[in-house]
Design brief:
Layout (H helix, E strand, L loop, with lengths): L1 E2 L6 E2 L8 H34 L1
Antiparallel strand pairs: 1-2
């Protein structure tokens, strides 16, 4: 992070986040999020729909 020209606030240079490690971290978070969504639907929504139609 760098100081803004007037020195009062911090400005973020987005070029600092172009390293492949950042892309890997984002991919990991997105992947785990998708797995959690799929498992939540499979464990809660799908059984609820099955029992609701009976």
């Amino acid at each position: 992070m760098r100081l803004s020209p007037d020195g009062t606030c911090m400005a973020v240079d987005l070029n600092e986040f172009t390293h492949p490690a950042w892309k890997a971290a984002v991919g990991t978070v997105v992947g785990y999020g998708l797995i959690l969504v799929v498992l939540t639907l499979a464990m809660f929504a799908l059984p609820w729909l099955i029992f609701a139609t009976l």
